[in-house]
Every structure is written in structure tokens, then in C-alpha cells.
Amino acid sequence: MDNKEIKFVIDQIEVPKEEVLNAIDRGINQSNQMDIKRYSHKKKIMISSIVAASIFGITLFSGFINPNMNRVLAEAPFIGGIYEEFGDKMGLNLAKQNLITELDQSITKNGVTVKLNDAYFDGDVVSITGHVNGNLDDGKNEKGEVSFDVNFENNKGDNDPWLNNKSTEIKKTVNGYDFQWKLAYPYKTIKEYFTLPISIHYINGIKGDWNFNIPITQHKNKTLTINHSESYQKERIQININEIKMAKASSTLEFETISNYKNDQIDIEKATDEKGNVIFYYSNNTRLSQSKEEDGYHLTLRKTIKKIDSDLQSITFYPFMSISDPPVQHLLNTPSFLLESERTDLGIRVNNITIEGNKLILDYQFQGLAGEMSNHRQDLLLNNLSYAFKLIDKDYVDKIDPDNPVPPKNHSISTNKVKLLDKKTYHFQSVFKLDGVNKIENFSLKDTVLQFDFSNFIGTSKLTPFTVDLPK
Asked: What is the pLDDT of residue 469?
């Protein structure tokens, strides 16, 4: 039956127009209770049924009615509306499946009201939407800007694992701002049900302590256990595909990388199915664990990908790596020397070192760089070279934490001004200011180490793709 036929059938229904209008009038004028009492119980039931049927018909076939009613219905809240507003396809998908948890929690502090509207949990993605309004312009932000100082699960400051890969979307509304936080579940073992404490300390610099406890629910996932290992002998690394969890609107991939070097970046750029369709293109990872074992440094990662079809037979993964290269160094007690990369053919040939007043001038050539130097490459080299060198007091070199290599204050110089001398031979000059904010007390060449980090000059390498058959 098409819309015209439905409208014809509805038009044939006899509706006692006068009684319906009278009933609506009495609903509006509730103070006149005596008039309502004069209706018999039977007539009340009849009129209620007529009104209910009319409303149902209006709602179902609103395309045939007054444009003003269309406008009212269009403005009625829809739980998936905010996900459409923020372009969240996962949220829209879950809303259609009625898998969104409605919250309706509101707190007002110091003239600012925060209302949390709804949440979802799918795969390893937690989403929370809300609305904020009130005296936001009384804070420190520029007018029209909104910022939250927030922590989750009673953590404090930046040492909050929920803040890793957290994203915030904010949109202006008539009376405030809608917002959405998307969080990556930070732990290896995913709970299906838990309560997530949320502590908002400041909004736009306004202190308030808006504290919520949010129920988080995820329907049971299906797990595909894979346990596939792929070794790359030349690079001396290994990639283990452990499992894929299939949620309601997304999937998660858990994999492990093994390398002899702690800071190597090994990741998967994209994956395709057996028909060549892209399952995902590079996405952020959640770091689950890291350890040093006999065969190298192990790093377990998880990434969110699109929902895997149940009939999928295989997945081809396209990995890449960016190697880390330990910093190399040499005392400045000789005027010329060679700094060589440990893992590549790159090198720095120092031709001469001179001191002019309060400046140390380093003349050198970058060796091992292939191809001609384009203007873009020149700009990158000049920028990177200005931060790749460090002058360090030799007595403080061993005191630098390799995991947090902060140059020792008053005993190091970490920036220089770079000048290109010859484009064809990659000939450069770096000038270090010896009496600047960063300086070395009692500077002397024989007691100073020149340190260089090649890592920023080593390109990313694509590794050979590999295919994994999925368990049935």
C-alpha cells in the first residue's frame, strides 16, 4: 500500500471533530476541572481513544499534515541526532540498534551546568555526549571557546590512561554547547560492564568539580583467535596478529611487535579483505603492554577498525616500520671527525670547529643522503639539523635519562642556527650561541661532547604484506 492509498484510508475514518477539539481545549484549560467531571467515564475513554488514534496517525503520516506540526516533530529530540551532528557513524549505527545508554545526569557549579546525555561502548571505544551552558564567558577562554580539565576513573593530571587518544568535539547551540568525548579503553582485558567516574575540575578556567559516575555497558563480543606470526629477518623484527574482537558497530585488532630496539615504531598501515576491499587505513593504537624479554622488546597494541563481516575469509596486512637510531657522540678535542649512524649508512663528517667570540661554529657535510636536494627537502633538513645536535658537558652525559632525555640545565646547548653552504654536497654550517639561555658553564672544547641523533633523518620503510586466514 503506497502513501496515497494510506492517506485515502485515513480520510475515510469518521472523526468527531467537535468532540476532539473540545477535548483539546479542556486539556489546555486544566483549571476548569468542573467541565471535565461532567463527562461520563465512557465518553472519556472514547475521546481518549480518538485523540490517541489521531496523534498516532499524525505522527506516522506527518507528511500529510500542517507544516507547523511537521516543524514541531522535526525538532523533537532523537538520540542519534547528536551523533549525526558530530559525524559519528559508529554512534548512529548503535543508536539504530538501541544500544545507547541514556544518562540524563546534570550538575551545576559556579553558574555553569554540565549535563551528560548518553554513552556507548563498542569494541574499545567509549563515547560520552553532553551539554554545557551558563556563565562560560566568565572564565579565562576567549568568547566562544570551551575547554574541559577532566580526568577519568579518579586519575589525576596527565597520568591518566583514559586521556591517551581522547578526542573532543564541541558545537555551539542556542543556549550553550553540545560536546562529545571519545575515549580508547586503556586496559588489555575489556570489561563488558563497569562504572566510569568522571571528574571535571575546570571549565574555561572556572573551578567547579563536576563529578559523575557513568554506567558503561557493552554487549558481548565475538572473538576470533588468530595467533599468526610474521618474521622479517633483515629488519630483525616480528609481528604477531593475536585476535580480532567483533562488536556491534566496530571491531578491534590486537597485535604484538617484537624488535631488538626499544623505540622502533612498527605498525600496520592498512588491511584489506580477500576481495581487495579496505578494512581499515592507518588508525591510532592503544598501548596495552610493553616488556623486555630474551628475544627483544615486546609491545602489545590494539586498534579500532570497522566491523568485520562474519563471512570474511582472510585479511591482508600492510605493515611499516620507522627504525630508531641511538644518538652518537664525539669529544670536541679534535677539529675533524666522523659521526656514523649505527643502523644506516648516514653520517656527519665534521670538517672544522672554530670559536668566534661567544659562538661555536661547526662546519660539516651530511653523508649518505640519496638524491638531489629539493627546496622542500632543504627546508626539512635545515629545520631538523637545528635540533639534531647537542653540546653536552662530558661529566653530565651519563646522567641523562634515555627514556626522558632532557638536556641538563647549564651543562648543555640543544639548538643552533643552520646555514646551507653547498646544496650538491650537503655542506652545512651550524652556529651555537655559548652565552644564551642554554649554556655550558666553564665551557671548553676538550670537556664538551658533540651528540647527534640520526632518527629524524631516517625514512619510514614499508614491509612486505602478509595474509592471515580467519578461523571459521
From this structure: 94
Tell me: the pLDDT tens digits for 27-39? 444 433 433 333 3
**pTM over 0.90, yes/no:** no
Q: What sign for the dihedral angle of Cα 157, 163, 169, 175?
A: negative
Compute the distance between CA of residue 131 and CA of residue 111 in angstroms, rounded to an integer.
14
Mean pLDDT, residues 22-47: 39
Predicted confidence at residue 79, as pLDDT, reads 59
Per-residue burial over 415-433, b = 16 or more CB atoms within 10 Å of its CB, e = otherwise: bbebeeeeeeebbbbbebe
* 342: Cβ contacts below 8 Å, ≥ 6 apart: 325, 326, 328
What architecture is domain 81-217? Answer: Sandwich (2.60)
Looking at every residue in the chain, the average pLDDT score rounds to 84
Within the chain, what is the greatest distance between any pair of CA atoms? 110
Q: What is the CATH number of domain 328-453?
A: 2.60.40
H and E: helices and strands count for the chain: 8, 27
Q: Where are the domains of the chain?
A: 3-74, 81-217, 222-324+461-469, 328-453
